[in-house]
Design a protein that fits this description.
- The protein is built from 7 helices and 7 strands.
- By secondary structure, it is α+β, with helices and mostly antiparallel strands.
- Among the domains are: 27 residues; 121 residues, Hemimethylated DNA-binding domain (SH3 type barrels), CATH 2.30.30.
- Strand 6 and strand 7 form a beta hairpin.
- Helix 1 runs antiparallel to helix 2.
- The longest helix is centred in the N-terminal third of the chain and has 33 residues.
- It is elongated, with a radius of gyration of 36 Å.
- Pfam families: YccV-like.
- It comes from Pomatorhinus ruficollis.
Length: 233
Amino acid sequence: MPHINAAAALQISVLLFALPAQYFISQWYRTDPAERIQVTERLIIASWSISTRSYLSPDAWADRLKLWVSKTRTCLYVELLILHFRNWYYGENKTKSGDNEAKLHSYFAESTHVHSPKPEYIKFRVGQVIIHRRFGYSGVIVGWDVKANTPEEQLQPRYSPVEQDLKDTPHYRILINKANGFGKSTAYVPEEEVTVIMGLEVVYHPDMETYFSGYDGSKYIMQPWLKKLYPHD
């Protein structure tokens, strides 16, 4: 049995379609046989031309493929954005107990739970500019914990035996001013090691715009997402 490719199958389909079309023409237009043959030929030629442009043209299939890929990428990108936003906003990646990755993200004042109510003994606020009393660098507060919240294996060697009480005092996450030339970009420090300074608006750090939208003369203004986490600061 001979092999029929796609083009041959399409030609046969067009010819089969021409038979009922010829009957339709003969019934409605009452033409003579010679005219019906001419009309049928034109119908076949027109159908074949449209089919080749729509289905047998490499350019037509290339255009369809490009459109499909574009739509697929767009839908996938939007879905990923929505998923990422939901995970970030609702803290879904921190709700499962025993999840080591979630625990890591909640350390060093990076937890996404709402810090409310705010204890009265927390002196400083997110957005305030500070200076470190020992190391002299300046920076801006981007988060706080009521006490040190670090992995246990890091907590013990962090403080000398005489400083162990500092573990139970408020701790702040700091974006360090890059203009200071300090080696680190962030710090996590106890309250007694920093003091607030006023009037220093310029803190250079690549993540500043992620956390803040401006400066009001006394502190940096939190972005809406950060304000949700620290509503009383």
